[in-house]
Amino acid sequence: MGKKILIVDDEKNIVDILKFNLKKEGFTTIEAFDGEQAVELAFSENPDLILLDVMLPKMDGFTVCRKLRQSLTTPIIMLTAKEEEVDKVLGLELGADDYITKPFSQRELMARIKANIRRMAMEEVAATRTAAIIQAKDLVIDCNRYEVKRDGKVIELTLREFELVKFLAMHPGQIFTRETLLEKVWGYEYYGDVRTVDVTVRRVREKLERDPSNCEYILTKRGVGYYFDKTEE
Hints:
Blueprint: E1 4-8, H1 12-24, E2 28-32, H2 35-45, E3 49-53, H3 61-69, E4 76-80, H4 85-93, E5 98-101, H5 106-129, E6 133-136, E7 139-142, E8 147-150, E9 153-155, H6 159-170, H7 178-186, H8 194-208, E10 218-221, E11 225-228
Helix pairs in contact: 2-3, 6-7, 6-8, 7-8
């Protein structure tokens, strides 16, 4: 049986189109037409990926995303009819893995779905091959528990945030462009928006750094990209 996709949208014609195209690609689908039903199905059906519309009855997509991220690491791609930057940034800050603006091409959407599912599979394999614990300055990164501790205290990170920290910490001092990080951490080369990287880095810094205005861990090389500072205190 193919990977299971939860489609969340209150417009039946859009759901029908998505179902048709997903099934052509070998996926199975389940559908929710409001936010409350989406939360219920996400927990009961354990989908491999969630396509989540922003504008929903009963509970909007942002609220759904926030509720799911309290305990689920399932990839979430947010669908929005709005062009405003604030909507895209808010979705990412709440833990969405990706977003796509309506109207979108089915080819692009399928590419993003496959990339996110492929990334999850690669992470599962990598977890068995990567050293269980990475020591990075005063951080302890537990790859099996997907957990980061600083000074013995757990720092709550989403799966994507964790993967970004782990990847950079595994290559201390090496500078990565936003495009490279999209490929290595997000899992796609051509469809990602580099602003996704900036938003995630900012969010990680707010959680990880003692003083986000004077970063110790994830630093910026102006005009190039980001790197993990390998300098020990």
